[in-house]
C-alpha cells in the first residue's frame, strides 16, 4: 500500500467505516432487496445498499456480476422483478421524472450520433436537460475537458480517447447531483486518465455530488472511491472502504482482491 499512498485523494476515508447514509435523511441511492430475473437467469439476487450523498462508491465485479443491470435499474431503464430503488429521495421508476434532471450517466461504450459535431451533440443533450446559458456551459466544459480542438468535428471522426472525454462532457452538461459512470477512463492514456480522475474529484467537492463508478481499473477505484461494493453472480460479496477490504483479504491491492473474489478464494478469517 505504501506505493499507493501518494495517489490518495480527499474522497477516501482510509480509517474506520466507509461513509454511511444517514438513516434519517434520504440517501443519494437507496436499494432494498433488489432482484432482477431474465427468464431462468437471476442477474441481480436480493441486494441492498444505501449510498450517502457527496460520496464516491465503486461498484466492482466481473462480467455477469450484475453491475450493469443494477445501474440500469437505478436509472429506471430496467424494471426490477422485486425490491425497490430510491434515487435522491424519489422512487424509481415511478417518480423518475422528478429527479432525471439531477442525474446523468456516462459510458464510452454508448455512442452519440456520429454525424453530428461535438458541439451539436452537447447542444442537443443540453436542451434535453433544459440547461440555462447552454452556450456558456458548453464553452466551460470544452475548456475543462480540453475539447476545444475538436468541438466542431463530427463525433464519428474522433479517436476513442476523445470520444470518452466528450461522453464525460455530456454527462456533466446538467451539473448533476448524481453521476453514474461506467469505465469513465476507458481508452485514455495514463496522463489523460489521471487528469479526468482529478476533474471528477474536483467536481464532487464543488457540487457535493454523488458518484457511482463501475470500473475494471482497480487503481482508479483505490484512488477515487471511499467505498467499494463487490458483486459476484448477482450478489454482494463485500462492501466497505478499499483499505478495510484489502485488509480482510490480506492483500495489498484491490486487483488482488478482485482476483480472489473472481476465483472463489476465501478472504482471511472467513469460515
From TrEMBL:
Function comment: Involved in beta-(1-->2)glucan export. Transmembrane domains (TMD) form a pore in the inner membrane and the ATP-binding domain (NBD) is responsible for energy generation.
Domain ABC transporter residues, every copy: 29-258
GO MF term set: ATP binding
Alphabetically ordered keywords of this record: ATP-binding, Nodulation, Nucleotide-binding, Transport
InterPro entries: AAA+_ATPase (IPR003593), ABC_transporter-like_ATP-bd (IPR003439), ABC_transporter-like_CS (IPR017871), ABC_transporter_ATP-binding (IPR050763), P-loop_NTPase (IPR027417)
SUPFAM superfamilies reported in the protein's UniProt record: P-loop containing nucleoside triphosphate hydrolases
Name of this protein: ABC transporter ATP-binding protein
Listed Pfam families: ABC_tran
Keyword Metal-binding attributed: no
Annotated spans, Disordered: 1-25
Organism per entry: Bradyrhizobium jicamae
Coiled-coil region list: none
PANTHER family: ABC TRANSPORTER ATP-BINDING PROTEIN, ABC TRANSPORTER ATP-BINDING PROTEIN NATA
UniProt family annotation: Belongs to the ABC transporter superfamily.
The keyword Nucleotidyltransferase is annotated on this UniProt entry: no
Amino acid at each position: 500500500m505504501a506505493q499507493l499512498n501518494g495517489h490518495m485523494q480527499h474522497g477516501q476515508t482510509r480509517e474506520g467505516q466507509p461513509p454511511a447514509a444517514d438513516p434519517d435523511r434520504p440517501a443519494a441511492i437507496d436499494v432494498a432487496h433488489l432482484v432482477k430475473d431474465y427468464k431462468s437467469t437471476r442477474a441481480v439476487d436480493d441486494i441492498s445498499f444505501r449510498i450517502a450523498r457527496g460520496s464516491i462508491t465503486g461498484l466492482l465485479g466481473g462480467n455477469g456480476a450484475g453491475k450493469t443491470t443494477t445501474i440500469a435499474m437505478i436509472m429506471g431503464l430496467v424494471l426490477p422483478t422485486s425490491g425497490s430503488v430510491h434515487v435522491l429521495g424519489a422512487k424509481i421508476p415511478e417518480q423518475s421524472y422528478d429527479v432525471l434532471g439531477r442525474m446523468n450517466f456516462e459510458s464510452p461504450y454508448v455512442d452519440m450520433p456520429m454525424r453530428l459535431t461535438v458541439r451539436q451533440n452537447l447542444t442537443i443533450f443540453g436542451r434535453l436537460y433544459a440547461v440555462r446559458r447552454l452556450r456558456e456551459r458548453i464553452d466551460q466544459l470544452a475548456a475543462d475537458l480540453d475539447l476545444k480542438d475538436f468541438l466542431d468535428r463530427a463525433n464519428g471522426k474522433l479517436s476513442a480517447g476523445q470520444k470518452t472525454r466528450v461522453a464525460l462532457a455530456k454527462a456533466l452538461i446538467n451539473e448533476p447531483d448524481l453521476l453514474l459512470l461506467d469505465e469513465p477512463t476507458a481508452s485514455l492514456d495514463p496522463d489523460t486518465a489521471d487528469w479526468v480522475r482529478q476533474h471528477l474529484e474536483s467536481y464532487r467537492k464543488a457540487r457535493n455530488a454523488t458518484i457511482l463508478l463501475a470500473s475494471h481499473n482497480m487503481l482508479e477505484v483505490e484512488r477515487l472511491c471511499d467505498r467499494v461494493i463487490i458483486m459476484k453472480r448477482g450478489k454482494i460479496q463485500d462492501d466497505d472502504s478499499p483499505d478495510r477490504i484489502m485488509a480482510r483479504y490480506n492483500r495489498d491491492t484491490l486487483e488482488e482482491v478482485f482476483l480472489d473474489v473472481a476465483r472463489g478464494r476465501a478472504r482471511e478469517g472467513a469460515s
